[in-house]
Amino acid sequence: MTDFSGTYKLVSHDNFEALLRELGASEEIIAKLNQNTSDLEITQNGSAYTIKNVSPNHTREISFELGKEFDETRADGSTVKSTVTLDGNKLIQIQKGEKELKIVRELDSNELKITATAGSVEAHGVYAKQ
Predict the structure, then answer these.
(1) Rounded distance, CA 4 to CA 15, Å?
(2) So what's the pLDDT on residue 81?
(3) Could you read off the pLDDT of 19-76 as tens digits, one per residue?
(4) Given this model, what pLDDT does residue 33 score?
(5) Hey, what's the torsion of the CAs at 55, 92, 83, 128, to 10 degrees?
(6) Sign of torsion, CA 16 17 23 25?
(7) For 73-123, how does the pLDDT look when each residue is reduced to its tens digit (9 = 90+)?
(8) Nearest to residue 99, comparing CAs of 115, 66, 123, 121?
(9) Which candidate among 44, 46, 54, 83 keeps its CA 20 to 30 Å from the CA of 68?
(10) CA quadruple 92, 118, 52, 77: dihedral sign
């Protein structure tokens, strides 16, 4: 099983604004989130995970067990039902709300590549393991 544990620093991201608009986020929320650079902290204990998204203005944290649905508040403020599964070196998260969001976190050597898809909009992020 792939060990995702570690701290990751954001290296690059693209199309995040368009993704937030697709999810229905207000321009105020989009502007606020766009000012942030973030780090990820992932801890793993068997099939239990915690992912912290740490930025200067805000920290968001989710804890979950693989394959078990949980409640989550998205960055756009909406409450959704999430389920995360493991496929090799990928954590695949499906958020079901008014609009569905799929987040794939793929660990490739010392990089964590994130692809987030809502409707026809896809955003990408790359984090370097510290």
Answers:
(1) 24
(2) 97
(3) 999 998 888 888 777 666 789 999 999 899 999 988 877 788 999 999 999 999 987 7
(4) 72
(5) -20
(6) positive
(7) 987 778 999 999 999 999 999 999 989 999 999 999 899 999 999 999 999
(8) 121
(9) 54
(10) negative
Six-digit token pair at 17?
């604004």
- CATH homologous superfamily for the domain 6-129: Calycin beta-barrel core domain (2.40.128.20)
Contact present, 100 and 3 (Cβ < 8 Å): no
Give the pLDDT confidence score for residue 74 in this predicted structure. 85
- How many whole angstroms separate alpha carbon 119 and alpha carbon 121? 6
Among 86, 68, 65, 94, residue whose Cα is nearest residue 3: 86
Phi and psi for 95 in degrees, rounded to 5? Answer: -105, 120
